[in-house]
Amino acid sequence: MTFTTSELLKKVPTGLLIDGQWTQASTGETFEVENPATGEIIATLASAGSADAIAALDAACAAQDGWARTSARERSDILRRAFELVTARRDEFATLMTLEMGKPLAESYGEVTYGAEYLRWFSEEAVRDYGRTLPAPEGTLRMITRRKPVGPCLLITPWNFPLAMATRKVAPAVAAGCTMVVKPAKLTPLTTQYFAQTMIDAGLPPGVLNVVAGSSASAIAEPVMSDPRLRKVSFTGSTAVGKTLLKAAADNVLRTSMELGGNAPFIVFEDANLDQAVAGAMGAKMRNIGEACTAANRFLVHESVAEEFAERFAAEISKLKLGNGLDEGVTCGPLVERKALDNISALVEDAVSHGAKVLTGGKPAGGKGFFYEPTVLTGVSLDSRVAKEEIFGPVAPIMTFRTEEEALALANDTEYGLASYVFTEDSDRLWRIADGLEFGLMGFNAGVISNAAAPFGGVKQSGMGREGGAEGLDEYTSVQYIGVRDPYAQT
Ligand code: NAP
C-alpha cells in the first residue's frame, strides 16, 4: 500500500453531503468513529440533525425531475465509471472497512469486489428497463406498460458491510433515475463518505446523492419519513428497527424495501460430502466474523454424522487467527462494539447453562479490542437463546436431527426467513427441502451465495423486496400503464 492510515483518513470527507457540497451540521455537532480492534478514535464527523436531513431531502427533491429525464445511457455510464473508480481505489476502501468495522483485510478486499459488482451490474441493467405491450383481450385497446423512477428515496444502511450495503441500494436507485438521501450506520460511516465522494468523482450531478451521517438515527429518519415528498424507504438492519420504519411508512404509504435479520439453518444430511459441508460451514459461519444477516445460525446435523462434522468443523475453526484485521495472517477480527461482545458472551453462557458443550473457544479473548474466540458448541438445547436469536458473531451451535421431516420442521421453526443452507448428495431430497424451506435464499452444497446478479432478500420477518438481480431495479420503479384506443375498435 502506498499510504499510511492517517493519510487515508485525511482523504475521507467528514461533513454532510448536501446538494453536491460537503458541509458542517447546522447545529455544529459531531460524533466519533472508533476502531473496534484497538478502541482508538479514528475520525470525527459532522452529526446531522433534523434540519440537515430536511435540507438533504430538499436537494434530492429539487434534483429529481431533471435526473429522471437523463438518458439511461448517461446513468449507466456514471455507474460504470463508479465501478472502475471503486476498483481502482480498492486499497483505500478495504483499509477503511477494516479500520472502522474490524473484518480482516482479505475479507474487506472481498467486499470491495462484491460491492463494486452492484455498480457494474446496475450500469448494465440501467439500459434494460423493460416494459410490455399487449392487446386488450376484447380488442378495444393497445396496452403498454413502462417503468418510471419511484422518486426521492431514503436509504438506511447497517454497519456490517459498509460498502456493499450502500452500493446495492445506491446503484439501482441511480440506474432507475431516483434521487436519494443516504443514512449510513454511525459505527461505520467512513466507507460511505468515501463512496459518496467516489460517486461525485464518477460524474453524479449535485443533489442526486445526499449523505447525512449522525449520532441520532431517529432525528434524521423521522422528519424525512414524515415528509410527503419522500416516495420510498429502503432499509437494511434489524427487524425491530424495520418494524418501526414500516409503521412510519404507513402514514404516507411509502414504497418500502426491508432487508432485515436472519436465523439461517445449516442442514447437513447423513449423505452429505463432509469436506464440502465443513468448507461451506466455515464460509457460512465465519465470513465477516459471523456478523452477517446470512450467517449460519443453527447447525442442524444428522445424528449419524454429527460427531465427525463437529470435530472437523471445530478443528478448522481453531486454526483461525484472531487479531487486528490489518495485521498479516489475521483471519478473524473483533466484534464491532462492546455491546456486541457482551451479547455474544451472554449467549454462550446461556447455551452452556442449558447443557451445551464447548468444543473450541467459548470466551472473550481479552485485550483492548472487542475480541471473542471463534466457538463451536455441541449438544445445544432448543430452549437456549442461540437456537432462537440471531447470534451475529463467531459462534456455531450444533444440534442434531433424525429424519428429513424433523430437519425441515426445525429449520422453519423461526420467525425469520432469509438464508438457508443444505448439504446432501441426493438431488430428489434437495428439491423436497427447497419446496419445504420458508427462506428467500438457499445455498445447496454452498456456504456463500450472495451475488450482485442474484435477487437477495427474505420472507417472514426477514423482510420484503429484493436487492440485486433484475428484481433490484424494480424496487426503484413504478409501473405506469398506458391504454391506447385500438384503431380497429368498434367505438
Ligand atoms: P440496526 O440497529 O437496525 O441499524 C441499521 C441502520 O438503521 C443503522 O443505520 C441505524 O443507525 C439505523 N437506525 C437505527 N434506529 C433507527 C431508527 N429508529 N430509525 C431509522 N433508522 C434507524 O441494525 P445493525 O445492528 O446496524 O445491523 C445488524 C442487523 O442488520 C442484523 O439484524 C442483520 O441481520 C441485519 N442485516 C440484514 C441484511 C439483509 O440484507 N437482510 C444485511 C445486513 C444486515 P445507527 O447506526 O445510527 O444506529
TrEMBL record:
It holds the Pfam family Aldedh. PANTHER family: SUCCINATE-SEMIALDEHYDE DEHYDROGENASE, MITOCHONDRIAL. The active site is at E259. It comes from Corynebacterium phocae. Belongs to the aldehyde dehydrogenase family. This is Succinate-semialdehyde dehydrogenase. Coiled coil: none annotated. GO terms for biological process: gamma-aminobutyric acid catabolic process. Keywords: Oxidoreductase. InterPro entries: Ald_DH/histidinol_DH, Ald_DH_C, Ald_DH_CS_GLU, Ald_DH_N, Aldehyde_DH_dom, Aldehyde_DH_Superfamily. GO terms for molecular function: succinate-semialdehyde dehydrogenase (NAD+) activity. Residues 22-481 form the Aldehyde dehydrogenase domain. PROSITE patterns: ALDEHYDE_DEHYDR_GLU. The keyword Oxidoreductase applies.
